[in-house]
């Protein structure tokens, strides 16, 4: 039996974190939640998830900035960015940084799970 994939969720909105955690857990993912990019970065030295789902716009540090800091530390984790305030510039910036997907809130569960499957499959080959 295969171990569940580990998904880290980072969003400054507690209801989004809780909702994503419940949703992903129902699909048998092992989920850890973080309230900020800084809290995720503190934890990143201790573990390696299979995928990160991150809000783009958060106080203090954007999701893209968090992702770029992970990269500069030598850690690539497939990352899916989510936002309630999409703009073409934000989407361009996310994909230019190396994002696997960019989803507009609200999104369907199947959109998210498909993005996770694609992101993890592309990394594992």
Please characterize this protein's 3D structure.
This protein is an alpha/beta fold. It has a single domain (6-124), classed as Response regulator (Rossmann fold, 3-Layer(aba) Sandwich), CATH 3.40.50. 46% of the residues lie in helices and 19% in strands. The protein is built from 5 helices and 5 strands; from the N terminus they run βαβαβαβαβα. The protein has helices at 14-26, 37-44, 63-72, 88-97, 109-124; strands spanning 6-10, 30-34, 51-55, 79-83, 101-104. It has a 5-stranded parallel sheet with strand order 2-1-3-4-5, with helices on both faces. Helix 1 links the parallel strand 1 and strand 2. Helix 2 (37-44) packs parallel to helix 3 (63-72). The longest helix has 16 residues, at 109-124. The radius of gyration is 13 Å and the shape is globular. 32% of the residues are buried. Residues 6-120 form the Response regulatory domain. The modification 4-aspartylphosphate is found at residue 55. Keywords: Phosphoprotein.
């Amino acid at each position: 039996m295969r171990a569940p994939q580990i998904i880290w969720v980072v969003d400054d909105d507690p209801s989004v974190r809780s909702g994503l955690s419940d949703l992903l857990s129902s699909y048998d993912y092992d989920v850890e939640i973080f309230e900020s990019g800084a809290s995720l970065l503190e934890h990143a030295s201790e573990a390696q998830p299979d995928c990160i789902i991150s809000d783009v716009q958060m106080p203090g540090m954007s999701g893209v900035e968090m992702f770029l800091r992970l990269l500069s530390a030598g850690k690539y984790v497939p990352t899916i960015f989510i936002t309630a305030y999409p703009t073409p510039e934000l989407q361009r910036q996310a994909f230019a940084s190396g994002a696997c997907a960019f989803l507009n809130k609200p999104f369907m569960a199947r959109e998210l799970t498909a993005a996770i499957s694609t992101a993890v499959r592309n990394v594992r080959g």
